[in-house]
């Protein structure tokens, strides 16, 4: 065996002797709570449907009006999370989630020009409800600040992206509601309302 091979073999043996157990799970790191707060709502149907519907409603108002939801909704998520952690009360329930989705779908399908103030209040209320619902994933060792930051970041990014896509597709400033683009958005609202109706039926079933 050549000197080079003996040296390489000795180096490999030394490296293997010093190897330790690898920990590749992000949940054990401090930033794991941030990712948990950001990913959990994106894996829950109630959150995904509500957030997408809110983003579409924001886009239907136009860029100037929709920007308020981008700021208000993440604040509502943090407020709801803090309320649930402090009080131990979670206001969300399957029926409340179903009714929320049904109402948002009907608003989209009706293509109503909702005042910015009213829609911002609705977004704040929904943020509080969904933020409180996501508090159930907090464990005793969870960093609540990181979890809240991840939840707010996910809400901000989701609403912003969906609103931007809706604005690009819908073009509310230049095209009427009766255009094919407006009809397509209203059809999505009908599907959202149908999801809410089915969820309501399942929640009321014995």
UniProtKB/TrEMBL annotation:
Signal peptide positions on this chain: 1-24
Domain of life from the UniProt record: Bacteria
Protein name: Uncharacterized protein
Pfam families, A to Z: HupE_UreJ (PF04955)
Keyword Protein biosynthesis: no
Record's keyword terms, sorted: Membrane, Signal, Transmembrane, Transmembrane helix
Organism from which the protein derives: Bradyrhizobium aeschynomenes
Transmembrane segments: 34-56, 68-89, 101-133, 145-167, 187-205
């Amino acid at each position: 065996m050549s000197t080079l091979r003996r040296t390489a073999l000795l180096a490999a043996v030394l490296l293997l002797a010093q190897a330790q157990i690898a920990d590749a799970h992000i949940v054990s790191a401090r930033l794991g709570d941030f990712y948990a707060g950001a990913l959990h709502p994106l894996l829950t149907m109630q959150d995904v449907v509500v957030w997408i519907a809110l983003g579409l409603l924001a886009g239907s108002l136009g860029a100037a009006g929709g920007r308020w939801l981008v700021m208000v909704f993440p604040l509502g998520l943090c407020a709801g999370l803090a309320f649930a952690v402090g009080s131990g009360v979670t206001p969300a329930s399957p029926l409340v989630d179903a009714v929320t989705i049904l109402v948002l779908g009907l608003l989209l399908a009706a293509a109503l020009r909702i005042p910015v103030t009213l829609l911002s209040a609705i977004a704040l209320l929904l943020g509080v409800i969904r933020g409180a619902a996501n508090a159930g994933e907090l464990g005793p060792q969870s960093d609540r600040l990181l979890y809240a930051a991840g939840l707010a970041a996910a809400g901000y990014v989701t609403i912003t992206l969906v609103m931007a896509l809706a604005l690009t597709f819908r073009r509310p400033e230049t095209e009427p509601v009766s255009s094919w683009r407006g009809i397509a958005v209203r059809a999505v609202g009908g599907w959202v309302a149908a999801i809410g109706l089915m969820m309501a039926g399942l929640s009321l079933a014995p």
